[in-house]
Amino acid sequence: MKFEIGNDAIIIRNTKEFNTEHILDCGQVFRYRKSGDSYTLSAKNHKCLLHNENNCVIIKTEDTEFFVDYFDLNRDYGKIKDELLQYKYLDRAMDYGGGIRILNQDPYEMIISFIISANNNIPRIKQIIEKLCRYFGKEKDGFYAFPSADALANADVHVFREIGAGYRAEYLSETSKILANEFDLNELYTLSTVNARKKLLKLKGVGRKVADCILLFAYHKTDLFPMDTWSQKIYNSYDLPPSNNINVMSDRLVGLFGNLSGYAQQYLYYYIRNNKT
DNA sequence: ATCCAGGAAGTCG
DNA sequence: CGACTTCATGGA
User: Is the CB atom of residue A228 positioned under 7 angstroms from any atom of strand B?
Assistant: First the structure.
């Protein structure tokens, strides 16, 4: 995609493949806030501000290099969307949320965030993660960085309950200790989706759906289809054999969409979640 | 009051 | 294996 790097800013002219609202509101990221006609976004220990100006998206940040990768700017989403047009419902979904991009987020941040996401709603997920950063993260000119693995590993369980994590507090406590000591997050980049998933499933609080979200939103593996309550509705709208097994449903959808499954899932998820039929 | 939210773990057969 | 139950929390 075409973009320019200016003085503490990235300028994007093709807004058909970059819509800030679509990207942030499709459920892949939680640490952002809308203020007026702009969005502030935090990732790891970086921050940026997005707004539209003269039919362009302006990303103001001191860390342009980080956010070029983060927003996946070197990938051709026009080509991906063209290929997805062959599938049922994707025309409608991409007409609605065609500006979605899959972010390249931090693996550790995704693991913690999506453990919190389990059986939870998005406003509350955002609130818990914000408190987590405020409680354990380092302050850096006006915002809180995502906490280090050590900070969470050394935390007492009851603090996770205090910030509203509920029964997930135990998962956060156990998993952050393992991540801080004996888990190689970088190895997963080199593994196949199936093998990387197996490793993630060993972590407390990480099941198939959470693992697939981590693999999609951090490792950019796209031969997977995260199955939550909404994805089950998507499955039922396709002409596939009835099933009540989440893994079977997920595998069949991957059989349909192949390596574009992750992208398809995001366009469809964003569409169905905002157009309750 | 009951149900739901980007589900996972534990138990039982 | 597969099916069924339980698990905090808060908003609708």
Answer: yes
Per-block average pLDDT, block size 10, for chain A (277 residues)?
94 96 98 96 98 97 98 98 98 98 98 98 98 96 95 97 98 98 98 98 98 98 96 94 94 97 98 85
Chain C positions with an atom below 7 A of a protein C-beta are: 2-3, 7-11
Q: Which residue is nearest to nucleotide B6 (CA to C1')?
A: A228
- The secondary structure element, H or E, covering residue A131 is helix A122-136
CA dihedral A258, A262, A263, A265 (to 10 degrees): 100
The DSSP bridge pattern shows strands A32-35 and A139-140 to be unpaired
Return the axis-axis angle of helices A107-117 and A208-217, rounded to nearest 10°: 140
Active-site residue list of A = 209
- Could you tell me the distance in Å between the CA of residue A121 and the C1' of nucleotide C11? 10
Query: What is the distance in angstroms measured between the alpha-carbon CA of A168 and the sugar C1' of B9?
Result: 11
The amino acid at A33: R
State residue A1's pLDDT score.
83
Phi first, then psi: what are they for A98, rounded to 5°? -65, -10
